[in-house]
């Protein structure tokens, strides 16, 4: 039987490319989304992949949503924590709400989804968790104390949970994308974007499919000896 994968924030951007890459690998894929019904409908019509709505930042909603997926589709073997938002601003201008929303969704979402999916993976002695971090969680970024803290937290979360999952056949890894040409980056002013691209050694933004292929590998049987690692996919922008 095909393994079942769930991709949070899977209906557009990087998440959509991940859903399509995992489906192409033969997995049964389910996407989650927050509330953009139009995008979700178009996604399901075009890909044939079902989309389930819940807020990854809300613990009870996540537990209920994942239970529904397991009843309707099957036990979840692969979890891709991709859902994320930005609420940028310098510390002086950032509200507590902007801080809290980003921490709740970007980092809290990983905790909530892992709480729902990890126990079953452990019981079945096989699982893959791939968390989408960010170059800005590794290197920091002006105007993003909330986002950088949450993404940096994802990298710590990954290494800690990897230690808990290792002896149960559950690997936990992160991908740290650089700048990828999705709607999230389209929101960056053009002048700022030009400066960003000038700092990327390969001289261009990344494509969502380039992140998706890395996720597909880390989700595969072949990646069983890789756990607790962060794969940077950033065109050489940040090396360490
Ligand atoms: P997009 O803004 O294009 O898409 C975000 C997706 O997340 C949508 O499907 C959205 O659902 C969903 N989402 C947002 N909030 C929630 C929530 N509370 N609960 C469930 N789903 C939610 O993002 P990208 O594709 O650009 O980014 C994907 C991930 O990659 C994010 O974690 C981002 O931080 C990370 N990343 C992106 C980079 C980039 O350059 N684009 C660089 C580095 C990291 P809906 O459509 O319903 O709103």
TrEMBL record:
EC number: 1.1.1.36
Keyword Oxidoreductase found: yes
Location of the Ketoreductase domain: 3-178
The organism's place on the tree of life at top rank: Bacteria
GO molecular function: acetoacetyl-CoA reductase activity
Keywords, sorted A to Z: Oxidoreductase
rRNA processing is among the record's keywords: no
Cited SMART domains: PKS_KR (SM00822)
InterPro entries cross-referenced by the UniProt entry: Acetoacetyl-CoA_reductase, KR_dom, NAD(P)-bd_dom_sf, Sc_DH/Rdtase_CS, SDR, SDR_fam
Any single Pfam family the record assigns to this protein: adh_short_C2
Similarity remark: Belongs to the short-chain dehydrogenases/reductases (SDR) family.
Protein name as it appears in the record: Acetoacetyl-CoA reductase
Source organism (scientific name): Croceibacterium selenioxidans
